[in-house]
Amino acid sequence: MAAMAPPSDPRGRPLDGFAADTYGDRFVDVYDDWYPDVTDTEACVATVEALARDVATRRGTEPRVLELGVGTGRLAIPLAERGVHVTGLDASPAMLAAMAAKPGGERVRAVLGDMADLAQADQRFDVVLVAYNTLFNLVEEGAQQRCLDRSGDALTPGGLVVVEAFVPDNDIASGDTVTTRQVTAERVVLSVSRTDADAHLVVGQYVDITEAGVKLRPWQLRWSSPEELDHTASSAGLALVDRWSDWHRTPITPNAPTHISLYQQTTP
To answer: At what angle do helices 143-153 and 226-235 cross, to 10 degrees?
Structure first.
């Protein structure tokens, strides 16, 4: 009998069966507990408000912000409470429901949609915010380009696309990793990931084990360097106008682990 061929190597490919709403639906019940401090929320909200108000004041209107991948409203709700008109777009109905259930969630205009296309973003905004690596969650070919294309189209004259992302190390290596995220008497959470450095792609699962059973929480991202992101933005008709290492507007340095990049339409 002929030997069976080994399964194809999944490196360089997104996770099979991973849809636009998969991340949100699988993480919604733990997101606020697991990621309460992924960024400086207070500084981010204050800075985005200031940017939006500056653009809106020049037009004599109230500031409008569109947050892509709004999730449970960690940034959108406090922004709205400051008097900013906030639209939050997310592909996960569960995430939008969690935001709506929070105090102040009713202040955010929630839109269900894929941030790669922004088909439902029927307004124009002073700031389009893509916070904390959210752009990298778009892993399909051309998805990040489409997102920046549509984001530029959604801007008011003089508006800004603001992207927060990590700066990838030059020595990221391909390979498989299993680590422990949490161990208690009631729960074990393992992190299993596979990295393809050539494709700039990492796919993974949090394996969440309790006495009630096992829950899989899949995730994936395709990273870009700041320079690669600038190229993608340029192809979308957007030019870099400023870049900081944090939300306090600290000037970027060669060793900064994150960057906040501000892009503006080249032909408003």
So the answer is: 60
Regions of the chain with pLDDT less than 70:
1-12, 120-122, 268
Q: Are 125 and 65 in contact (CB under 8 A)?
A: yes
The token pair that represents 101 in the structure block: 């259930």
Burial of 134 per CB tally in 10 Å (0-12, 13-18, 19+): buried
Share of the chain above pLDDT 70, in %: 94
What Rg do the C-alpha atoms of the chain give, in angstroms?
Answer: 19
Co-location of 95 and 214 in the same domain: no
Let me know if residue 3 belongs to a domain.
Answer: no
Domain extent for 161: 22-168+224-265
Q: Is-above-0.90 flag for pTM?
A: yes
Q: What does the pLDDT read at residue 4? A: 38
**Predicted local confidence at residue 7, as pLDDT:** 39
Same domain, 208 and 235: no
Q: Note whether 70 and 102 are within 8 A (CB).
A: no
